[in-house]
Design goal:
Residues 1-33 are annotated as: Disordered. Residues 1-20 have a biased composition (Polar residues). The chain has 110 residues and is an alpha+beta fold. 36% of the residues lie in helices and 9% in strands. The protein has helices at 33-40, 57-74, 87-100, and strands at 4-6, 43-45, 48-49, 55-56. The longest helix has 18 residues, at 57-74. The two termini are 28 Å apart. 12% of the residues are buried.
């Protein structure tokens, strides 16, 4: 089970967009819709840590997957090492993670 922190109880938008295409659909990129939906509802799972400071549990696993989605969408393919990524891109990724999860002290290590 995951623990959540809620900042307010707002309703989510109800608009929908449908795009029709007769060509064969590929797998597409994962967008973590569950995380995005909770983010819109302002529900943030609390990431738990063990005694050594390593993230544990379902919230940690989801956070790692979400970071992967963000990295694939924001980091250029030409960059090979995390140390070569510009700080502004890293900051954008951190802000998105911080809006979606309660990370806690020491969670921002870059």
């Amino acid at each position: 089970k995951m623990k959540f922190a809620s900042s307010s109880a707002e309703t989510e938008p109800t608009s929908q967009t449908t795009i029709s295409d007769d060509s064969k659909a590929g797998r597409g990129m994962s967008t973590m819709p569950r995380v995005v939906k909770r983010k819109l509802q302002k529900l943030r799972p609390i990431v738990e840590y063990n005694k050594r400071g390593k993230g544990i549990g379902q919230a940690h696993s989801e956070m790692q997957s979400y970071i992967g989605v963000l990295a694939r969408s924001k980091v250029p393919l030409v960059d090979k090492k995390w140390s070569q990524i510009p700080k502004d891109i890293k900051e954008q990724i951190w802000e998105a993670v911080d809006m979606a999860f309660v990370v806690g002290q020491g969670g921002k290590k870059y």
